[in-house]
């Protein structure tokens, strides 16, 4: 099964722009993204940063009304391993209730910012359970092979951990469903790796950010070259490649994936 996920965050939530809390624009492009999904019949999980909802609560409503899954992507996009466990629990519980009150839907899932969950953060499964979450999708083994080979979904403290499937490139685990690999590699290679990961794991997870598809309202020429290249290059190509994939394949939300495994 192919799974679609969106990290709904602002361009300034990426680590390179830390602290620049200005020019929220995601709320102005959400509808375009929802239209795109509707045209291609995609059901997605939206991992949402709470700050965006506080600023524009109606985006959450629109996403839920379009039939997508609402999930939690931290309060302010600070890395999970930099959060104090008590602070995390407070923010996760608060956000879950806020998202549920606005959307009228149950919120089951969590994804840490920038895949910042580490096995040594032993407090995380318990905190997720306490806050009422049923699954986590934060494990991303973009690392040397075997070092972080988490393999298939597993339970810890009654929370289902769903790692990101990887393409086994012999010396490197490549998560083919998004960001750098999808934007920088030729489409056919990404597509092949994505399909292979799906064959090996039984599922593959695609992930995209609004700022990868829609130009943020900032002066890109003032941004340092390498950062600009890493974050904002190939947006037009990314959109074309993205459209190709969602038109060719069927995509489901994580909630739908979990339900399909329970049958
Ligand atoms: Zn993020």
Automatic annotation (TrEMBL):
GO terms for biological process: carbohydrate metabolic process. Transmembrane segments: none annotated. SUPFAM superfamilies: Glycoside hydrolase/deacetylase. Residues 9-263 form the NodB homology domain. GO terms for molecular function: hydrolase activity, acting on carbon-nitrogen (but not peptide) bonds. InterPro entries: DUF3473 (IPR022560), Glyco_hydro/deAcase_b/a-brl (IPR011330), NODB_dom (IPR002509), PuuE_HpPgdA-like (IPR045235). Pfam families: DUF3473 (PF11959), Polysacc_deac_1 (PF01522). This is NodB homology domain-containing protein.
């Amino acid at each position: 099964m192919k799974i679609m996920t969106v990290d709904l965050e602002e361009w300034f939530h990426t680590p390179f722009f830390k602290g620049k809390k200005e020019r929220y624009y995601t709320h102005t492009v959400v509808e375009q993204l929802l239209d795109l999904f509707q045209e291609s019949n995609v059901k997605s999980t939206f991992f949402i940063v709470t700050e965006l909802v506080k600023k524009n609560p109606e985006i959450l409503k629109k996403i839920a009304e379009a039939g997508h899954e609402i999930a939690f992507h931290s309060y302010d996009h600070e890395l999970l391993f930099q959060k104090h466990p008590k602070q995390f629990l407070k923010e996760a519980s608060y956000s879950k209730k806020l998202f549920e009150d606005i959307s009228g839907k149950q919120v089951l899932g969590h994804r840490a910012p920038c895949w910042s969950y580490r096995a040594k953060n032993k407090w995380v499964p318990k905190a997720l359970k306490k806050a009422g979450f049923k699954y986590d999708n934060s494990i991303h083994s973009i690392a040397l092979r075997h070092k972080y080979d988490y393999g298939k979904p597993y339970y810890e403290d009654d929370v289902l951990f769903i790692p990101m499937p990887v393409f086994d490139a012999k010396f490197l685990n490549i998560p083919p469903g998004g960001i750098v690999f999808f934007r920088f590699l030729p489409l056919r290679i990404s597509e092949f790796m994505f399909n292979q990961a799906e064959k090996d794991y039984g599922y593959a997870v695609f992930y995209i950010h609004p700022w990868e598809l829609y130009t943020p309202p900032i002066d890109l020429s003032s941004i340092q070259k390498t950062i600009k290249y890493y974050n904002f290059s190939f947006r037009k190509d990314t959109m074309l490649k993205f459209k190709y994939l969602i038109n060719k394949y069927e995509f489901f939300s994580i909630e739908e994936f979990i339900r399909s495994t329970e049958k």
